[in-house]
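We emphasize that the prediction below concerns an isolated chain of 109 residues; any contacts that depend on oligomerization or on bound cofactors are therefore not represented. The input was used exactly as deposited, without trimming of termini.
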Amino acid sequence: MRRDVFQAIADPVRRDIIGLLSHESLTVNDVAENFSISRPAISKHLKILHECGLIIINKQGRSRYCEIQPKNLIPVSDWVNQYRKLWEGKLDSFEDYLIKLQAKNKENE
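Result of the prediction step, given as a token string:
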């Protein structure tokens, strides 16, 4: 079953794993040490991230190293950017409103 990147980032644990791996490659055990859930649960999360192409897992001796594939997060970035423009416009309008409100309050002092 091929999963999609949005399924991968839907889970907070997987987002935290992505955050960890964004700094450095870690072994599966190193990843698991950062969470209070079972090692098999972490392995399942890593499997989903791997199936989505967000990480690769390289075997070196007895250890399996997880490495992020940031280019595969581009679809998420593109999707978020379309809404960023919408929210920036709304925030700019809100800022203009607050400036007018402050000016009006100063006039009434």
